Amino acid sequence: MPLINYQSIDGKTTQVDVAVGLTVMHGAVINMVEGILAECGGAMTCATCHCYIEQSWRKKIGFASAQERIKLKLVKKPKANSRLSCQIKVTEELDGLTVLIPDSQVWSKS
User: What is the average pLDDT across 9-27?
Assistant: First the structure.
């Protein structure tokens, strides 16, 4: 199974083996990765699975669809490398992928 790295704004990285065919979002939810809320369960209606993709991985993942780009306009702090993790299917080629979780999605514990 490909290893996906979920990195929070404070640099903490959670490494998860995610089965091929699942989405990056499902890998996070199954393993309770903080910051990937996925309130709609992957239906692309809420954008609470927003993440940033490192430049070196963008070609392997592919580009966001028109519908995903519309949803990304609704997130806090969108960037050119923003994606919805529910729209990224895990393949063997994504072994070692690092997704960066925006600080706007991580709830303060204080």
Answer: 95
Q: Report DSSP state, residue 2.
A: -
pTM: 0.92
Q: Is 110 exposed, middle or buried (0-12, 13-18, 19+ CB in 10 A)?
A: exposed
Asked if the model's pLDDT at residue 64 lies above 90, the reply is yes
23 vs 10: CA distance, rounded Å:
24
pLDDT digits (tens, 9 = 90+) for 78-104: 999 999 999 999 999 999 999 999 988
Bridge partners of 14, per DSSP, are: 6
What is the C-alpha radius of gyration for the chain, rounded to an integer number of angstroms? 13
Q: Which of 77, 91, 83 is nearest to 58 (CA)?
A: 83
Other C-beta atoms lying within 10 Å of the C-beta of residue 19 = 11
Ordered by where they begin, the domains of the chain are 3-105 (3.10.20.30)
Q: Which residues pair with 99 in a beta bridge?
A: 6, 53
